[in-house]
From TrEMBL, chain A:
Cofactor(s) listed: FAD
InterPro entries: FAD-bd_oxidored_4_C (IPR004113), FAD-bd_PCMH (IPR016166), FAD-bd_PCMH-like_sf (IPR036318), FAD-bd_PCMH_sub2 (IPR016169), FAD-linked_Oxase-like_C (IPR016164), FAD-linked_OxidoTrans_Type4 (IPR051914), Oxid_FAD_bind_N (IPR006094), Vanillyl_alc_oxidase_C-sub2 (IPR016171)
SUPFAM superfamilies: FAD-binding/transporter-associated domain-like, FAD-linked oxidases, C-terminal domain
Stretches assigned to the FAD-binding PCMH-type domain: 37-216
The organism's place on the tree of life at top rank: Bacteria
Keyword list, A-Z: FAD, Flavoprotein, Oxidoreductase
Protein name listed in UniProt: FAD-binding protein
Classification lineage: Bacteria, Pseudomonadati, Thermodesulfobacteriota, Desulfuromonadia, Desulfuromonadales
UniProtKB/TrEMBL annotation, chain B:
Annotated keywords: 4Fe-4S, Electron transport, Iron, Iron-sulfur, Metal-binding, Repeat, Transport
Catalytic function, reaction form: (R)-lactate + A = pyruvate + AH2; glycolate + A = glyoxylate + AH2
Cofactors demanded by this protein: [4Fe-4S] cluster
Residue ranges annotated for the 4Fe-4S ferredoxin-type domain, each copy included: 14-44, 64-95
Highest taxon of source: Bacteria
Record's keyword annotation contains Repeat: yes
Record's protein name: Glycolate oxidase iron-sulfur subunit
Length: 477, 434
């Protein structure tokens, strides 16, 4: 139990309004968007400056409280769930955009800035910040960096890591660090900054981020294609890539997802179709026209059931927005939406759909699949009910077998959601014991006391930190 | 949403359904749409957080604590989260149910209970009493005391809400209810017969709005039946957590309007419209299913109705003005009516519609919320007024009396130049003189 003097001390350093410890607050800051995991912290703090982060860290250290950083809690691997209780450090009140440097094409912002707010602020100056996680309206830049978030434009533009130029933050020993800078080229020493990106809050608390900006594409075409068979959609994706066309976006939704999304957005998506592909090509007008024609030709060759071109920018934006709601819309079908983040080399895409279909039949589950088809990153989602233990066990077996195949094909267990709690055992399978050992040694160097976000990425043998699927989805407190 | 089985730590009557809270997968799509989350930045004041609290009570992980009561009432019930939720969670309605739970868990003291019961169970359900109660206020305005009070600022001494309530009052005319004919004939080629559901705030505060609504309907070729017995729709009761009185009122209005020989039941109050459309759920176990379905199928907001039957624009006179439109929460979020009012505005000759940013962001009125949380309400309103100002429009149009009271007050306080009108007042101006 956290002592009352520690609470008083925190309030003194951070201000009364920035320290919460009532049960109702603890209850609502012990989850993120990952189903089935919910743990109560003992105290929640909202620092408003790096100095306050240092102060909170000092008190956590003195009290022996594990410290779990978080933003808006949109994570899908349990990265910000305080499995060991302790202190939750919520960065949403550090939400200032500090600078948009038009000479160097960079933007600097505090960790709690909402991703879309940054996108809009730089767009207002005629610049473009490409990473766009599905939750961009809600998620924070700090969370994106900590989880190395991907998104709908990952195919052509890459993920968050590809845009981070500099980071400031606080390490476990309370030192303030700054790594990277505005220089486009920088090979001085170890890639320390890159290590922090995607570290899921286990190596340090990121407080300030400088990102690279690029000029926005001058032109854009959005194409929507429907298919009678989901594997044909997968084949279309592989052939588009093989034809050396790199769309900015190539998103897929299968029938279950189309129907749930349509229930919500009501924009007339055809419910009977087996799959749809949402393809966007962007860039200079001439190549855009050429690429759009190329995409169309391939879609015709593989015999897509219908091919449409978005009427205008508004229509295209509506389609992309609809796609962003896919996961949440699936929750209409069942109370528990168990989503995974399987990613395969793109040539394997059609086969992956076949495998998902086979396993769905084998384990008798409801599955909706959507994802970033263009980068091979799929989100097969089992629609189940956490109260049904038999169903949960089948879901676990489904993913177990699917990941086995994905790894055999040279894929990865996480394309963009991170490992957190949900995928620890799969990570170990992917990188082997040696790989896990190296990661643990890095962690040891940064955080010898194991204070920062303990229980994440790799297993420490504590049953409550095992992959939640193995836990049979008990909600533990 | 009513429930008779005990659910976790909830009281058995009017508890939320477990499925309704379990459906939230905590994606956070609701967060940027929630005015109270924007105010506090505190998860428990967000829809996701509130549903998590309800779930914790349902799962016996938490008692129904005073903090939950506080959150239930701090929620504006604006339903913006419902619009934003891809999973179909209705956090606002879960909180509405929690308000009645709050009264079961924390009963008021003797005086408070008597006062609440008098207001909710005696005064509001009785149109006569309600009208009589406004008499002193009208006298107060006529005798010039209002001028004195406003200028000498004597209310600065009283609680803030009282000062605001006083400041919000428009100049009151005689209530409209006794004045409206039971049957207003259709003009021109007759297109049908509609029942008009006259709201309490409309008859008392904005008689001119509803007078225009009836004129519009009549000019559009509809015979208008206005039952004088109409009682309050029950929305204030739901908002205050008195579901039982709300049900009694709903049953009364259901019987009254089903007895009329009308094709549609039209209202010009977004709050009433939302409540009437939800009778189906409120009365789930109290009335026959097909009667509820028949009643539900007839309810239309006036803008929804006019766009459905098609607005006759011949004979409309030109109004040269720029207009911006504030979407009432109970129209856009609770009823999903967003395009229709704009289409009406665009069809009025001479009118230019200038969209404001965040048109569907709440104005901070929310029934009595704006009085109970006067300071927070002001902050929500200020965000709205900034957007109104930036639109540069001459007229600010809305479609709900609560919004109109709040916006008219805000515009006056901020010395903005806009006229604040109900959509039917604007359309009424375009009608040829009677």
């Amino acid at each position: 139990m956290i002592s009352s003097t520690a609470i008083a001390h925190l309030k003194e350093k951070l201000g009364d309004a920035n320290v919460l410890h009532e049960k109702e607050d603890l209850l609502t800051l012990g989850y993120d968007s990952t189903p089935g995991v919910h743990h109560l912290p003992e105290v929640v703090v909202y620092p408003t400056s790096s100095e306050q982060v240092v102060a909170a860290m000092e008190i956590a250290e003195r009290e022996g409280l594990p410290l779990t950083p978080r933003g808006s809690g949109t994570g899908l691997s349990g990265g910000s769930v305080p499995v060991k209780g302790g202190m939750v450090l919520c960065l949403t009140r550090m939400n200032r955009i500090l600078e948009i440097d038009e000479e160097n094409l960079t933007a600097t912002a505090e960790a709690g800035v909402i991703t879309l707010d940054l996108f809009n602020a730089v767009a207002a100056k005629g610049l473009f910040y490409p990473p766009d996680p599905g939750s961009q309206k809600i998620s924070t830049l700090g969370g994106n960096v900590a989880e190395n978030a991907g998104g709908l434009r990952g195919l052509k533009y890459g993920v968050t890591r590809d845009y981070v130029m500099a980071l400031k933050g606080v390490l476990a020993d309370r030192s303030l660090i700054a790594t990277g800078g505005k220089s486009v080229k920088d090979v001085a020493g170890y890639g320390f900054k890159d290590l922090l990106v995607g570290s899921e809050g286990t190596l340090g608390i990121i407080t300030e981020i400088t990102v690279k900006l690029i000029p926005p594409p001058q032109d854009k075409r959005t194409i929507l294609a429907y298919f009678d068979d989901v594997r044909t959609a997968g084949e279309a994706v592989s052939r588009i890539i093989a034809a050396k066309i790199i769309p900015s976006t190539m998103e897929i939704m299968d029938r279950a997802v189309i129907n749930c999304v349509e229930d919500y957005v009501k924009i007339g998506l055809p419910r009977q179709m087996a799959a749809l592909l949402l393809i966007e090509v962007d860039g200079h007008p001439a190549p855009v026209a050429e690429e759009a024609a190329g995409v169309r030709k391939i879609l015709e060759e593989v015999k897509a059931a219908e091919i449409h071109v978005a009427r205008d920018a508004e229509h295209a934006a509506g389609l992309a927005a609809a796609r962003r709601t896919a996961l949440s819309a699936l929750a209409r079908v069942s109370p528990t939406t168990l989503l995974e983040d399987a990613t395969v080399p793109r040539s394997r895409l059609a086969e992956t759909f076949g495998e998902i279909e086979r396993l769905r039949e084998k384990y008798q589950l409801k599955v909706g699949t959507f994802g970033h088809a263009g980068d091979g990153n799929l989100h097969p989602t089992v629609l189940c009910d956490e109260r049904d233990h038999d169903e949960m066990a089948r879901a676990h077996a489904f993913y177990n077998e699917l990941y086995e195949q994905v790894l055999a094909w040279g894929g990865t267990v996480s394309g963009e959601h991170g490992i957190g709690l949900a995928k620890k055992e799969y990570l170990a399978r992917q990188i082997g014991p040696g790989g896990v050992q190296v990661m643990k040694r890095i962690k040891q160097t940064f955080d010898p006391q194991g204070l920062l976000n303990p229980g994440k990425i790799f297993d420490e043998g504590d049953p409550c930190t095992k992959a939640h699927v193995e836990e049979g989805f008990r909600v533990s407190h | 949403m009513s429930h008779t089985e005990p659910l976790g730590n909830f009281k058995s009557e009017d508890a939320p359904h477990y499925d309704d809270v379990l459906q939230c997968m905590r994606c956070g799509f609701c967060l940027p749409t929630c005015p109270t989350y924007a105010l506090t930045g505190r998860e428990r004041s967000s829809p996701r957080g509130r549903v998590a609290l309800a779930r914790a009570v349902a799962e016996k992980k938490l008692e129904f604590t005073p903090a939950i009561k506080e959150e239930a009432f701090f929620c504006l019930d604006c339903r913006a989260c419902t619009s934003a939720c891809p999973s179909g969670v209705r956090a606002g309605e879960v909180m509405e149910v929690c308000r009645s739970q709050a009264h079961a868990f924390y009963p008021l003291g003797k005086m408070g209970k008597a006062f609440r019961e008098f207001i909710l169970q005696k005064m509001v359900p009785s149109p006569d009493l309600l009208e009589t109660s406004m008499l002193p206020t009208r006298l107060y305005q006529r005798l010039g005391i209002q001028w004195l009070v406003r200028h000498l600022k004597v209310l600065k001494l009283g609680p803030e809400w009282m000062e605001k309530a006083e400041g919000m009052l428009p100049r009151l005319e005689k209530p409209l209810r006794p004045q409206l004919p039971l049957l207003t004939p259709a003009r021109g080629e007759k297109r049908g017969k509609v029942g008009f559901f006259l709201g309490c705030v409309m008859t008392l505060m904005y008689p001119n709005v509803s007078r225009n609504t009836v004129r519009v309907l009549s000019h559009q070729g509809f015979e208008v039946v206005t039952p004088r017995e109409t009682k309050c729709c029950g929305a204030p009761h739901l908002s205050e957590g008195d579901r039982e009185t709300a049900r009694q009122l709903a049953l009364f209005n259901l019987d009254l309007f089903l007895a009329q020989d009308v094709d549609y039941i039209v209202t010009d109050c977004a709050g009433c419209g939302a409540a009437l459309k939800e009778y189906e759920e409120l009365l789930e176990e109290r009335a026959e299913h097909d009667r509820l379905a028949r009643f539900r199928s007839k309810i239309r907001d006036v803008s929804e109705f006019l766009m459905e039957v098609g607005l006759r624009t011949e004979g409309l006179q030109e109004i040269t003005a720029s207009v911006t439109y504030h979407e009432p929460c109970h129209l856009c979020h609770a009823q999903g009516i967003s395009a229709q009012p704009r289409r009406i505005i665009r069809q009025i000759p001479g009118v230019e519609l200038r969209e404001m940013a965040e048109a569907s962001w709440c104005c901070g009125s929310a029934a009595t919320w704006g009085l109970k949380y006067a300071e927070d309400s002001r902050k929500v309103l200020d965000r709205k007024l900034e957007n109104v100002k930036a639109s540069g429009a001459e007229i600010l149009v809305t479609a709900n009396p609560g919004c109109q009271l709040q916006l008219a007050w805000g515009v006056r306080e901020a010395s903005l130049p806009q006229d604040v009108l109900h959509l039917m007042e604007l359309l009424g101006r375009a009608l040829p003189p009677d």
